[in-house]
Write a structure and sequence with these properties.
The structure is a homodimer.
Chain A lengths: L24 H8 L3 H8 L12 H14 L5 H8 L4 E6 L5 H16 L3 E6 L4 H13 L4 E4 L7 H8 L4 E4 L8 E4 L1 H14 L5 E4 L6 H16 L9 E2 L5 H13 L6 E4 L2 H13 L9 E6 L12 E4 L2 H16 L7 E3 L2 E3 L2 H4 L30 E3 L3
Parallel strand pairs in A: 1-2, 1-3, 3-4, 4-5, 5-11, 6-7, 6-8, 8-9, 9-10
Antiparallel strand pairs in A: 10-12, 11-13
Helix pairs in contact in A: 1-2, 1-3, 5-12, 8-9, 10-11
Chain A binds a DNA duplex (30 and 30 nucleotides) through helix 2 and helix 4.
Chain lengths: ~400, ~400
DNA sequence: CGGAGTCGCGCTAACGTTTGCACCGAACGT
DNA sequence: ACGTTCGGTGCAAACGTTAGCGCGACTCCG
């Protein structure tokens, strides 16, 4: 047992190894004195109708030997024979975006439990790169894909679906393709209700990219809630933006340039909110007192800012996990439906005006519940049946 | 016919396709009226001594047909036959850490130019996970690996090397294994010289995890430079920490608890620095005036903080790119040597005491011209030319 | 005691590529 | 005119698995 490590205790001079010296099924079979097909059946736990397994004793012997020599099936051979690769491709706008990185971590974690591995690629939200990377990943014969960079119009995705590639979307929705998203409309509502409740009436929205359902839905939810409260958000105060700091900065500048200073801003993304806060600060406005700011996602940074950022928390990690499970079900041939996870509002100083301290004031003040940056356990957001 | 999507213009009813309907080499060969071996030779551009290629006309015909039907070789078949997968495995502590994510982006980008794909996995710096994930990736028959989570002692890596797996390290070094790192010792020196030059003498270090060469070398360089200047950094003011905000926070608390307040702190990681700044702020110390703080890496956030963080910039993206190239050379059988890329100091308000404005003073607002002496452009970390 | 059913396992043919070798015609040198 | 060389292809054997089929031996029961 001591030496039962990798590449077998045998010392590397096993019979019938592959070119690299790794044991093959043949190695195991020969050692066990059985035919390779028998070894295969045993190691694959084949069962079911019409299939007969080996005897208990032989099975155990084979398994023991396989274990001892450190046998692991050659995925190329298996893939060639079965034409299934246990591989999934994941496309994201950018992995350096912590939102997507967190989602991806969830995906990777969950797929691994099924024995699947993942290829990730960045597309930078560029349609050309999307096509190109998709082809690349498909050429690897993945069993399915997860897109985190869907365009709302979904033309490209229709095409992929037409080619019979099973996939699910995550974070963003598009058309009728199965997706796992945050309930962004609700998230936008939460933001609006929070601001309205605080008495704000002159609202602005930093709306994100026009092709991403996240920004669209969050904005829509926000405006709907405002409209219901009889508050209008003029077009001039709803501006599109990139999802990063720079995007938020530019959008905020544009809003201020309107000459019509709002008393609160909703940014559909935390980083955009941070950019906006910088601009406001430079403009001499005290965030949290002179003007309220709400972000979206609750990235760890949000609670660590000098002025804690009020934001709508989305269960990023869990979205990844759920998307993975959804894809697995699709691969099994099941008919699946989209899932929308519920967000929650995390109030902090950027709207409450209370200085809770840069450290996030763990457990102190109204802004607590903010949770420690770093480890944001995704609360098991209850799943809402989608009417789609 | 109308749905003549992407599966080749042929219309999808090609002869001799694979189970999924994709064209195989046989499809192409049959259409071109040649043997599959001929098609293979043509499509693989075989050349060299003793190998004869097909005639120009046949070659062109084959290539044209392959293109038309959208042929892409089955990687399982190729991998099985050649026992090379054009796959590399990448292990990182955590992908949500933007430092590692940036490095990974570089790796992915560069490997892709070689026709390689990558598997990434998180290990959370946990030795058990490292082993487990490594085995998982190796079971996929990758051609090589890149470790971004090396422990300084490198026992595990020796083992892997002993098994004949080609790999390189990135970000952290260990033993004599080939690595691509930042010159961390130099980086530590830069930080020290900067602080010493500003007159600081009571220095503290937030040193990161004790098993990571990054923290070790940065700390060593820092202390060496101090020693040369005749300044001692007492052990009590050098404390280990996690590489995240929370780690920096805890470490700073510990340092302050010493009762012996430093006049400057060097954190070996920007996020740790941010955590430290929060604690200092809560303690009533004005960062940049009462106390200087220097971080490491220059993550985008550093320049966007309300008090810009002075930091040592490390070429993260390029480290990834170089690591990828290094591995490729190793795979070709070349003898390779470690590379150390040079860092540079980026002075900001956290040591200079100048309020440059939250937005990073991008030409807007009152804080504008207040650029720091020798101010380096904050944002677009110059992307290193990546050889295609 | 003999036939039917079952159990345990071996045989064999794929899966899609690559590659050493053999073969054939044409050009070439003497 | 006749070997020789070489350019252009075809042949076939792998690579490591899986899965349908079939065959002996054993069990069971009438």
């Amino acid at each position: 047992m001591a030496g039962s490590v990798h590449r077998g205790a045998g010392g590397g001079d096993l019979p019938f190894t592959d070119p690299a010296g790794r044991p093959t099924l043949r190695t195991v079979a020969e050692l066990a004195g059985v035919h390779v097909s028998t070894a295969s059946r045993v190691l694959n736990q084949v069962s079911g109708p019409g299939v007969r397994s080996a005897s208990r004793t032989t099975s155990e012997r084979i398994r023991r030997i396989a274990q001892r020599v450190g046998y692991s099936p050659n995925p190329h051979a298996t893939g060639l024979r079965t034409s299934r690769s246990n591989l999934v491709g994941v496309l994201v706008p950018r992995l350096v975006d912590i939102v997507l990185a967190t989602i991806y971590e969830g995906i990777e974690e969950a797929t691994a439990t099924y024995g699947f591995s993942t290829f990730v690629a960045n597309t930078g939200d560029d349609p050309v790169a999307q096509r190109q990377r998709t082809e690349m990943v498909l050429a690897r014969r993945v069993d399915g894909m997860i897109f985190g960079d869907a365009y709302i119009d979904g033309g490209f995705l229709d095409e992929i679906a037409g080619r019979g590639v099973p996939f699910v979307l995550v974070s963003r929705r598009a058309g009728a393709h199965p997706s796992v998203t945050c309930d962004d409309v609700l998230g936008g509502r939460l933001a609006a209700e929070h601001l309205l409740g605080l008495g704000h009436r002159r609202l602005a929205v930093i709306a994100g990219e026009p092709y991403a359902s996240t920004g669209i839905d969050r904005t829509a939810g926000f405006r709907a809630a405002c409209a219901e409260a009889g508050v209008e958000v003029p077009e001039a105060r709803v501006v599109h933006s990139g999802f990063d700091t720079e995007g938020g900065r530019a959008a905020m500048v544009e809003i201020l340039a309107g000459g019509d200073v709002p008393d609160a801003v909703f940014a559909v993304n935390d980083f955009a909110a941070v950019g906006a806060m910088g601009v406001l600060r430079d403009a001499g406005l005290a965030v949290g007192r002179d003007i309220g700011v709400v972000g979206f996602n609750d990235v760890p940074l949000a609670g660590s800012l000098p002025v804690g950022l009020t934001t709508v928390r989305s269960p990023m990690h869990e979205m990844g996990v759920r998307a993975a499970h959804l894809l697995m079900r699709r691969l099994r041939g099941e008919q699946v439906e989209s899932e929308r996870l519920v967000p929650s509002l995390v109030p902090r100083a950027s709207t409450l005006g209370v200085e809770v301290g840069w450290s996030g004031a763990r457990g102190v003040g109204p802004g607590s519940g903010a949770g420690a940056p770093g480890s944001t356990p995704d609360r098991p957001a209850p799943r809402t049946p989608t009417p789609r």
